[in-house]
Design goal:
InterPro entries: LysR_subst-bd. It comes from Salmonella enterica I. Pfam families: LysR_substrate. It is a single chain. The protein is mainly alpha-helical. The protein has one domain. About 55% of the residues lie in helices and about 0% in strands. It is built from four helices and no strands. The two termini are about 30 Å apart.
């Protein structure tokens, strides 16, 4: 979806609200500009839940990484 919105904005058909990582190169290249970024940021909250059962090693690693992100905030 973000690719479609990005292309619509680059075609001059409007504006798009996109994550910075999705348009970083286009901003660097001058193909897109950022409008007043400070006023356009919306804080969000995300919640992650897990069951008390054993998870795969990949899932456990993912969970530890999520916990690390939470601790960094």
């Amino acid at each position: 979806m973000s690719e479609l919105l990005k292309q619509v904005a680059m075609d001059g058909c409007g504006i798009a609200w996109l994550p910075e990582y999705a348009i970083r190169q286009e901003i660097t290249d001058g193909r897109l500009i950022v409008l007043d970024a400070d006023e356009l940021v919306i804080p969000i909250q995300a919640y992650a839940y897990r069951m008390n059962t054993r998870m795969s090693q990949v899932a456990e690693t993912f969970w530890r990484n999520l916990r690390g992100l939470q601790a960094a905030l």
